[in-house]
Every structure is written in structure tokens, then in C-alpha cells.
Write a structure and sequence with these properties.
binds S-adenosylmethionine, 23% strand, 247 residues, seven-stranded mixed sheet, 34% helix, two-stranded antiparallel sheet
Length: 247
């Protein structure tokens, strides 16, 4: 049964608040900002009903994001904006994604605690950190070496021992680390890269924005069934930086 229909939205938010508090809360100056961010994400999810066929984000995902210091993943310059529901620059022409989109993509992956996940597009490391608290292992690859290096340093400093970072072109995935229970691509591709479909386990799910940088992109859900058949579903229109290729 859906949480929204069973408890009502207020009860759901109260439950998330309790889970956040119980999960050894990060005591810092941004606790209220984080709680507000979760409320904004929850409100945004209600308007996504048509495209997604649902009107809520998994409470486990909201609990993780409500306890994760997003301000550690942006430069000092943007620290005060870290909990606004919008993307922010992380330098090199790249962005840390909008919190609602991070919540949505994480939710759509439907990950479990034993899962091994691939992320293409490490950026700041924030999406990898969210996933790291929900799964066994995250492998995250970034094409811009300086971003890969700073994300590795940041995730190490914050204690994310189950995130493995790589510098390189994620179009090809990470065949030596796969296959993966779930794959999330955080840059827009012209088509779903065939190597990523290959590296998805039977029963696995991939979430990827597809479309050109100059036209409407859509968040696609790619599902591989137990027999290896692949089904693709288009969900929300989105706007991502492009998936670039190593020259
Ligand atoms: C929207 S940002 C990612 C945000 C990131 N997930 C976070 O939490 O901060 C997209 C990232 O994808 C990276 N990227 C683009 N093409 C790539 C490729 N072929 N392989 C790996 N990373 C790529 C960009 O350099 C950029 O850092």
C-alpha cells in the first residue's frame, strides 16, 4: 500500500523526521534547512503524479537526504544555498543536481541493502553519498579528472568507505566492477549506452536522462527482466549537462 494513502502526508513527514533524528543526526547549522528541503521535495513529488504514476518519494530516501550534509558537497561560495531545491555550480561547467531530481532518481532505482550500484557522473559525489547509505557498494565514474579527484577526497574525508571512485569515460561503464543491480547516469545521453545495458543484471534498473543538450530531455527508466529482456519507459522532462565522450 502506498504510504500516502495509508498514513496521510503529515504522518509520513513526521515519520521521516523521527527516522532522521534517530539516525544519529548530523548536528550542524543546516538542520532546519535540510528539513525544509525535504518538505519541498515531498511537495514537488505530489505534482509529478502524472508522469510517474505515483505521488511520493520513498521515505528511506528522504530520511537519508534529510541527514546528509549537502553543504559539504558545494564550494564555500554556495554553502548558504546548498539546501535550495536547484542545481548549483561545482566548477568545470558542471553542476550538483537539484535535490528533488536526486531523490527521484534514487527512488526510481528501487535499491536494496545488498545492491551494488554504478553511477556515471560523480560530480561532487553527493548522489553517490545518498546511494551509499542505501546499498552495499557504489562505483562512481567521472570524466573530468579534477572533479573525480575532489569527489574521492571529499567522500573519503566524510567516511564513505563503500564508495569507489574512478576517473574515465562512463559511457563504457565499469565492466570489471559489474554487473550491477542498478545504474544511475547523471548526465544526458543521446541514447542509452549499450555497454551500460550489458552491465545491468537481470532484474536490474537503470535511470538515465536521454536527449540532446539543446532539446527536451526525458528521464528514462530502463528495466531488464529475469530473462534479459529490456523495457524502456519515459518519465519526466528534465535538464541535465551532456554526457561527454573521451576524445
Ligand atoms: C549533473 S553532474 C553530476 C552531479 C553528481 N551526480 C553529483 O551528485 O554532484 C554530471 C556529471 O557527469 C560528468 N560526465 C559527463 N559525461 C561523462 C562521462 N562520459 N563519463 C563520466 N562522467 C561524465 C560531468 O563531468 C559531471 O560532473
Amino acid at each position: 500500500m502506498r504510504p500516502s494513502s495509508r498514513f496521510g502526508r503529515r504522518a509520513l513527514l513526521a515519520m521521516i523526521a523521527l527516522m532522521v533524528a534517530a539516525a544519529a543526526a548530523v548536528a550542524d547549522a543546516y538542520e532546519e534547512d535540510r528539513a525544509r528541503m525535504i518538505q519541498v521535495i515531498d511537495a514537488h513529488a505530489r505534482t509529478a503524479t502524472d508522469a510517474l504514476g505515483r505521488d511520493y518519494i520513498d521515505p528511506r530516501v528522504l530520511a537519508v537526504m534529510g541527514n546528509l550534509p549537502r553543504h559539504e558537497f558545494v564550494s564555500d561560495w554556495f554553502e548558504g544555498d546548498a539546501y535550495d531545491d536547484r542545481p548549483l555550480s561545482i566548477g568545470h561547467g558542471q553542476t550538483i543536481s537539484q535535490p528533488f531530481i536526486v531523490a527521484l532518481m534514487t527512488d526510481m532505482l528501487e535499491v536494496g541493502p545488498d545492491d551494488v550500484v554504478l553511477e556515471v557522473g560523480t560530480g561532487s559525489g553527493y548522489q553517490a553519498a545518498v546511494l551509499a547509505r542505501l546499498v552495499r557498494e557504489v562505483h562512481s565514474i567521472e570524466i573530468i579528472p579534477a572533479l573525480a579527484e575532489s569527489a574521492k577526497e571529499r567522500l573519503g574525508r566524510l567516511g564513505y568507505a563503500n564508495v569507489h571512485t574512478y576517473a574515465g569515460d562512463g559511457y563504457y561503464g565499469l565492466p570489471d566492477a559489474g554487473p550491477f543491480d542498478a545504474i544511475v547516469v547523471t548526465a544526458a545521453a543521446h541514447q542509452v549506452p549499450p555497454p551500460l545495458i550489458q552491465q545491468l543484471k537481470p532484474g536490474g534498473r537503470m535511470v538515465i536522462p536521454v536527449g540532446s543538450s539543446f532539446a527536451i530531455q526525458h528521464l528514462m527508466l530502463v528495466e531488464k527482466d529475469a530473462d534479459g529482456r529490456v523495457r524502456t519507459r519515459q518519465t519526466l522532462p528534465v535538464r541535465f549537462v551532456p554526457l561527454t565522450r573521451a576524445s
